[in-house]
Amino acid sequence: MSASPNIIFYTDRQCPFAHRVYIALAELELPFKEQFVDINVPRTEEYLKVNPKGKIPSLSYNGEILVESGIIAKFLADAHPSHLIPPSDSEAGALRRARVDFFVTTYETNVLSLVHKLMFTPSTQEAQGIVSSMVENIVQEIEPLLVNAKPYFDGSDKVTLAEVLTASFVLRFISLVRHGILPPSTSNELATRAPHFTRWAQMIEETPNIAGIYEEMVWVNKFNEKIANARA
């Protein structure tokens, strides 16, 4: 494929799923045109021609339309071989993809799903149970998969596809702790019981290509608003 493809990225910078694609584009140093989509109003006819379902993100790559953030990020990583992941036709590439897929699925199932549940939980008591489950899942399910992070996934010294696909959610998890949406004790408990996860999360927050577009307070305010609406 072309070293300098024509890329149009249809996006909302506040969307954590679109954030995945921003990370991939930054790490691959691919130039692109941003086309912002206002998710607070009905989609325009123009955008519905790009993605009839109206979802974001979408990406035009030399005129070919791709949808769904994970698919877009994986496509970019495959189309432009780099440090993100070894080539798919190599044994190392196949093995790394299997590890990345397992890690991402584990994070989505054990952490991300509970963050979403927390957002719409009407009961404070139920929310406390969700938080306890989230912490325990990180300790039991995520921590063992990060034992060899150096500092990034699977012993890499550079950002990998695993970070591309999970880091936007990790940043937002950190924000939940920092701004008191999760109990302040969460940070100390994870530092003690999940030190590899804690170091990995700190590195994510310190990586410019990951954290660069994240507007923390915009997201925190929206999260708090959704919690307030759920408990009204």
Automatic annotation (TrEMBL):
A Pfam short name: GST_N_2
Residues covered by the GST C-terminal domain: 93-228
Coiled-coil residues: none
Segments forming domain GST N-terminal: 5-84
Superkingdom classification of source: Eukaryota
GO cellular component terms given for this protein: cytoplasm
Family named by the database record: Belongs to the GST superfamily.
Protein name per UniProt: Thioredoxin-like protein
Organism: Thelonectria olida
Lineage: Eukaryota, Fungi, Dikarya, Ascomycota, Pezizomycotina
